[in-house]
Q: What sequence folds into this?
């Protein structure tokens, strides 16, 4: 079964001084008739473990992040990561500057691997 996945938007927040991690966000669209799942993200530019994360709320309204094994990309739909939904937690091992491009390999359960280049942006930068 052929999937028609594309990644029209990829960005990573510029690391904050002293913070061990930063976040990357991808908009993944699926033109295909079957859903797929993002199961792993790696990067030749990032040493260490990159984790898929979901953002959750406690009953009292506090936000927290939880690692997850996979993120679903629905058929004829999209996965649109944001600070309010899901992201990719990335070790902040390098001093990236705004405008730098960082390569990431997104591996999907059925569609294989897609390489994208994410632009480094300041946290809070609108889409």
A:
């Amino acid at each position: 079964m052929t999937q028609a996945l594309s990644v029209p938007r990829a960005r990573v927040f510029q690391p904050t001084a002293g913070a061990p991690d930063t976040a990357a966000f991808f908009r993944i669209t699926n033109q295909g008739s079957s859903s797929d799942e993002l199961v792993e993200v790696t990067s030749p530019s990032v040493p260490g473990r990159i984790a898929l994360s979901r953002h959750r709320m406690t009953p009292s309204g506090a936000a927290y992040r939880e690692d997850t094994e996979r993120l679903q990309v629905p058929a004829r739909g999209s996965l649109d990561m944001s600070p309010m939904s899901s992201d990719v937690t990335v070790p902040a091992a390098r001093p990236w500057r705004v405008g730098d491009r960082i390569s990431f390999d997104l591996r999907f359960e059925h569609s294989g691997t897609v390489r994208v280049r994410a632009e480094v942006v300041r946290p809070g930068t609108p889409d």
In short: The first strand starts at residue 5 and ends at 13. The chain has a mean pLDDT of 89. The radius of gyration is 14 Å.
